[in-house]
Design brief:
CATH topology of the largest domain: Rossmann fold
CATH superfamily of the largest domain: Glycogen Phosphorylase B
Shape: globular
Radius of gyration: 22 Å
Number of domains: 2
Helix content: 40-55%
Strand content: 15-25%
Structural class: alpha/beta
Order of helices and strands: EHEEEHHEHEHHEHEHHEHEHEHEHEEHHH
Bound molecules: adenosine-5'-diphosphate-glucose
Number of strands: 14
InterPro entries: Glyco_trans_20 (IPR001830)
GO molecular function, one term: alpha,alpha-trehalose-phosphate synthase (UDP-forming) activity
Family: Belongs to the glycosyltransferase 20 family.
CATH architecture of the largest domain: 3-Layer(aba) Sandwich
Strand order of the largest sheet: 3-4-2-1-5-6-7-8
Protein name: Alpha,alpha-trehalose-phosphate synthase
Largest sheet: 8 strands, mixed
């Protein structure tokens, strides 16, 4: 098999290259462990406009993986990453066209940065490479590489949802984006709905349907181990002590409007109102580190959540009880795994999510003899694989309230039954199997003439 070339907007930072710390690096760990590999993308650094012409690809080799990164100028970062990728494509793909703020100028920067990626990657490519491009930042990259004469197999995986064509076409230039996807030999999406939506779009735009489903997973063995070991950490023990045997609910999400956090807080408030027997007893820990803090929508969301948490705590709390423990700092994975294990229920209620790995991590972290209950939104990509969770409509606060009450009063036998039905798929569809399946499909593509 040829050399694997991974391209993504962000490449793991130097400090995370020995030991992957999360995200794509964990998902690709097995795939990157064999043969020679190249990982290309943005360095995370911004440079002044005047340094643009002299910028070079920086190369760092760690074992068998070569990390090749380029810097972006401030205006490239702004137009390509903040505005077009996260201010236009992200909301649109999460069915929130109303939040999208399109300008033609940002689209130009997005296309220019994709062109820059293609030009800087080209000299690093070798015959026989398998090129795997990730996510919405880089939709046009495949075509840009083809235009430069690249003939290797190129695959594309979209980590986020793909909306129905009737919505997607709100994006100016959507037809061109779809036609350029013709450059890819393999296109992977998370769910049947996403693949169907993309293929419908292809059929409207006269492109052969080629979107396929490759659901992503986690590394359940190592996560389960981290969760077991987590119970030894001083911080996890401190949390356990502070609970004093009270029922414990956890929520873990990046601060993002797709994750349904204000709606979740409303659901929790409805739960306290309608099931007052839990007042003074239940503990809900929501861990929500700030992400994309420079984008206006995210700043507003943070204000909304800060306000809601303060209001709920002020209104329902008591001198010896805080209804919501709300953290906006990230928590290291090994502690997170221990926290999940302690939790009697997890609230995973996105309004829309490509997959949602937290749902799978929570299941992996449970003790099968006394597991907690997963409350999961119908609109997470994980939902079709996890029907034994308590599935809820995140827009319905009362439904979240009922699910919380049901979870906290559920008999141990039912909790075990549900977990026993959820667990096999979490162990079967893993990060490793996802990458293997995708790369296998890509390797099967004959070299283009
Ligand atoms: P994300 O939107 O980032 O990913 P998700 O799938 O939930 O969402 O993955 C988040 C990861 O970050 C999880 O491993 C989680 O443990 C970790 N994480 C979240 N909050 C954290 C916190 N407070 N502290 C520490 N770690 C935290 C995108 C798509 C998803 C898709 C993934 C993978 O939006 O739908 O599942 O890519 O394809």
């Amino acid at each position: 098999m040829g050399r694997l070339v991974v391209v993504s907007n962000r490449v793991p930072a130097a400090r995370d290259r020995q030991q992957p710390a999360g995200g794509l690096a964990v998902a690709l760990r097995d795939a990157l462990s064999e043969g020679q590999c190249l990982w290309f993308g943005w360095s995370g650094q911004q440079i002044p406009e005047e340094d643009k012409a002299e910028r070079e690809v920086s190369i760092d080799k760690v074992d068998n993986v070569t990390y090749a990164t380029i810097d972006l100028t401030h205006s490239e970062f702004d137009g390509f990453y903040q505005k077009y990728s996260n201010g236009i494509l992200w909301p649109l793909c999460h069915y929130r066209a109303g939040l999208m703020s399109y300008t033609r100028a940002d689209r130009e920067v997005y296309l220019d940065v994709n062109q820059l990626f293609a030009e800087k990657l080209l000299p690093l490519l070798q015959p026989g490479d398998l090129i795997w491009i990730h996510d919405y930042h880089l939709f046009p990259l495949g075509q840009a590489l083809r235009d430069l004469g690249v003939t290797s197999p190129i695959g594309f995986f979209l980590h986020i949802p793909f909306p129905p064509w009737s919505l997607m076409k709100a994006l100016p230039g959507a037809e061109r984006l779809m036609r350029n996807m013709h450059a890819y030999d393999v296109i992977g999406l998370q769910t049947e709905d996403d693949a169907r939506n993309m293929n419908d779009g292809f059929s409207v735009c006269g492109v052969e349907a080629r979107a396929q489903v490759f659901p992503i997973g986690i590394d359940p063995e190592s996560f389960a181990e981290q969760a077991r070991d987590g119970l030894e950490h001083a911080e996890v023990l401190r949390l356990q002590e502070s609970l004093r045997g009270k029922p414990f609910i956890i929520g873990v999400d990046r601060l993002d409007y797709s994750k349904g956090l204000p709606e979740r807080f409303k659901g929790y408030e409805a739960f306290l109102k309608r099931y007052p027997e839990h007042k003074g007893k239940v503990v809900y820990l929501q861990i929500t580190p700030v992400s994309r803090g420079q984008v206006e929508e995210y700043r507003l969301l943070k204000e909304e959540l800060d306000e809601a948490a303060g209001r709920i705590n002020g209104m329902y709390g008591d001198f010896d009880w805080t209804p919501i423990r709300y953290l906006t700092k990230p928590v290291p994975r090994e502690l997170l795994a221990g926290f999940y294990r302690l939790a009697d229920a997890a609230l995973v209620t996105p309004l829309r999510d490509g997959m949602n790995l937290v749902a799978k991590e929570y299941v992996a972290a449970q003790d099968g003899k006394d597991p907690g209950v997963l409350i999961l939104s119908h609109f997470a990509g994980a939902a079709p694989e996890m029907e034994d969770a308590l599935l809820v409509n995140p827009h319905d606060a009362d439904e979240i309230a009922d699910a919380l009450h049901k979870a906290l009063t559920m008999a141990q036998s039912e909790r075990c039954d549900r977990w026993n039905r959820l667990q096999p798929d979490v162990w079967r569809v893993t990060a490793g199997s996802w990458a293997r399946d995708f790369i296998g499909m890509l390797a099967a593509k004959v070299k283009r003439a």
